[in-house]
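[scheduler] slot 2 assigned
[scheduler] job type: sequence-to-structure, two independent chains
[scheduler] chain ordering preserved from manifest
[runner] begin chain α
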Amino acid sequence: MAEVCEVCGFEWDAISAGEVPGRLAAAADGFATVLRSGERSLSQRPQPEVWSQIEYGCHVRDVMFNLRDRIVVGLAEDNPTPKAMFTDVRIELGLYAGEDPLRLADEIVIGSGLLGRTVTALDAEALARPIFYGWPRATTRNLLWVAAQALHEAEHHLDDVRR
């Protein structure tokens, strides 16, 4: 049974390594357009329980760097269990407050480019290496799934910020 996002329809197993870099770049460009718009509402939450565009952008930036590091750890260790990202803690501690949207746009583009180049550098054997992943259900996956998860986060949350 295919794993599909109930909200956006993303299907992890349908993603090939070859499409990750281009789609990541397109999503990063979409975020950059939103963040470079100069709109004053970028840091305002539309509803108390819904993140602001800046918070979504910070999360996606952190996902790009964090999941790239998870891939590298997965290349170095057998079936590692990575630490959680603790996004809620980052928000609660104010780590995303006061982010400059222009700098954030650049960081998302840089992070997605770095992750895309990492995926491009790996062969099928490397991408098939196992990694334990705790979300959306705890199970052993492979490094291509981690790359697809980064893509899902970027595309899914780009839809969120465009709404």
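[runner] end chain α
[runner] begin chain β
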Amino acid sequence: MRSLFALLSSALLVQVGLASNIAYKLIGTIVTDSPAFISVEKFPNQPEFLLISEFGALSSGKVAVIPNIRDAFEGKAKFSDLKSKVLSSAFKWPNSISVIPQDVFPGVNAIVVPDGFLPPGKTNGNIYVLKTDFNTQETLY
């Protein structure tokens, strides 16, 4: 299923690139279970990381991170070696996640997770704040 999705996504990118004369080059692939929203984020004085929300129609949702994402773009790591680390799998339908600015919670590295949707079988949801430290692999609510 993921291979089919990757193939369709690549075909779409090629069509978009041809239609708009924008050239692109595939530099790597990151494999995840069921990605929904992604964003490259950064905490102060730390390297950039990729935040990934994942969910499926019949499965619970999770929030994952790939630390040091810049290393792959700079050739210090291979895209195929990048593995996501699950921060939490306690969500139903996590949407677009992002870093909370440091001036909101001074000295705290936190991520906001809007969770919920309204298709059949899901609930309205909530907004969660994850306090996290990627160095210790500790995630707190």
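[runner] end chain β
[qc] chain β: The chain has one domain: 32-140.
[scheduler] slot 2 released
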